[in-house]
Amino acid sequence: MRHKLITIIISIFLGGSIPLFAQVAGCEVNNVPFFSGERVTYRAVYNWGFIWVNAGDVVFTVSDTIYNSQSAWHLKSEGWTLKQYDWFYKVRDRFESIVYKEGYKPVWFERDTHEGSYESYNHYQFRYPTEEIEIISRTSDRPYKQEVLPLKPCTFDILSAIYYCRSIDFSKYSIGEKIPLTMAVDNEIFELFIRYLGKEKLTTREGNSFNTIRFSVMLVEGTIFKGGEDLFVWVTDDMNKIPILVEAKILVGSVKAVLSGMEGLKYPVTSRIYP
After folding, report:
1. Residue 213: which domain range?
2. CB-based contacts of 200: which residues, under 8 Å, 6+ apart?
3. Closest CA to 72 of 101, 96, 102
4. Residue 126's closest CA among 110, 150, 107?
């Protein structure tokens, strides 16, 4: 696996191209914790001991759209390296997903990533009547390819999975309990889980404090990740469930996604702790 910092940052929110999830029963969501106009931004940071490097930025946006005459969400995430690092390793990544509002069903997904000299493109079309995912993909070292995956119930792409997991009611779970899901990524379907770790107060490097919900994500071992539950996520303990911090232990140091801005939220940020 190539070293691709921004893709890892996007991925580690809930799995990305490295970890995946197992099937969950009754996954339909009709009251999501976001709406059109939400915009959340993150700074991608690499940490090794006392070394902290701001490497790039990632932005997530939500808008309304119509797809196949049905009301839908248009989810989008873009990531890029800071300009001072472009000469060394330029990253320009884009992920987009269209999800039917009724039942929260993903129907269209596109990934277009440019990382150094390596490029990758994936297009998914979710066909519910035939229970198939039609895939078009290409990379710098692999030509245009078409294939079909079986569409199991409650299958998500990377981006729709991130937003779906914000709708999980963690109050229904005990500390240490596993929460299964399903996700298709990199033209495959894998099965892992997230583990609820309880609630805690989190203070950012900027001094902002929040009441948060913490969970870990099961990772598959690779050239960057060690494997196991070395990815941790802190989300606001309120109705928005905005990720405040995401941290992944990698083979050397750790990679973090640190919240840098949020606007257009559906609910007040009641998790914020003021002095």
Report:
1. 5-273
2. 212, 214, 234
3. 101
4. 107
Rounded distance, CA 45 to CA 48, Å? 10
Nearest to 202 by CA among 153, 273, 137, 106: 273
Residue 204 structure tokens: 């950012």
Residue 3's closest CA among 259, 258, 252? 252
Whole-angstrom distance, CA of residue 243 vs CA of residue 181: 18
Identity of the amino acid at 220: V
CA geometry: angle at 178 spanning 224 and 39, to 5°?
65
The 8-class DSSP code of residue 49 comes to T
Specify the DSSP class assigned to residue 156: B
- DSSP assignment letter at 159: H
Closest CA to 244 of 255, 229, 256, 228: 256
CA 158 to chain centre: 6
Band (pLDDT 50/70/90 cuts) for residue 74 is very high
When comparing pLDDT for 82 and 38, which is higher?
Answer: 38
Please choose, from the candidates 269, 275, 216, the residue with its C-alpha nearest in 3D space to the C-alpha of residue 245: 216
- Tens digit of pLDDT for each residue in 95-136? 999 999 998 999 999 999 887 888 889 999 999 999 999 999
Phi, psi of 255 (to 5 degrees): -115, 135
pLDDT reported for residue 184:
83
User: Which 3 state secondary structure label does DSSP give 169?
Assistant: coil
Number of folded domains in the chain?
A: 1
Q: Is 165 helix (H, G, I), strand (E, B) or coil?
A: helix
Distance CA 230, CA 257 (A): 14
Q: 């709708």: which residue's tokens?
A: 167
